[in-house]
Amino acid sequence: MRIRFTKMQGQGNDFVVIDGVRQLVALTPEQVRRIADRHFGIGCDQLLVVERPASPENDFRYRIWNADGGEVEQCGNGARCFARFVRDRGLTAKDAIRVETASGVIAPVIQPSGQVAVDMGAPRFDPNLVPFTASAERPTYPLAIGSTTIEVSVLSMGNPHAVQVVGDVDHAPVTTQGPLIENHAAFPNRVNAGYMQVLARDHIRLRVWERGAGETLACGTGACAAVVAGIRLGLLDWEVRVATRGGDLVIRWGGVLAPGMPAMTSPVIMTGDAVAVFDGEIEIQDRT
What we know:
The protein is mainly beta. The protein contains four helices and 20 strands. It has an 18-stranded mixed β-sheet that branches. A two-stranded antiparallel ribbon has the order 17-18. A hairpin with a 2-residue loop joins strand 12 and strand 13. It is globular, with a radius of gyration of 18 Å.
């Protein structure tokens, strides 16, 4: 099976994007892992497939697989690359589209600057919706990691996140502690582990250990989750520049409930780059 693809990146978070509208695409987890492998395949953090929507009210369906071959609900940086891909490849003439995901509909908009802004929907704090094992909703939760107990903000941005505030992200235990948080028994579907350093009320630094991908250069939903967590804790204002190792994102959580506090049902808006790197074809061994 020969598949045409485009390699793309958003703030260094890289993707293999496949047009599933004009060609038949049916991949096994093993085939996804092979494509994502940086030595034997193309190499990517996530694989994205464009499909026709289930509802005529929407423009496309967006499916996402992590590098480990697991299909997931949402990917923020991927959403921006998805929007640029369908526009630049002539699958749509629209700059604003509605896209179905496993966690709901998102609305990317290509801006005149070339950047893409995405309405990621409202965050979800109910532990049952994350999902997260907790008796009641709280701003932070204690989480036992070995002999250490940390405080994390837990929420869903269409996928699960556990965010903690650290003094210096450069020295945060992302690669050692991150996998333990990802696979913690309190998260039935695993979780993305975020490490946020607050520089100012409108500026943070962020590293994220992504579920099924490891540490990536940027995580769009992780940036949204971190800003939402920081605002709920009274540390951040409603618009924040998020510095990742791959570049900056701007996250807005608008709608004012009280001075400086967005309404809980307000959507989170993420803005950043979406860049095509190269096009190619790959031969994938058919399923047997």
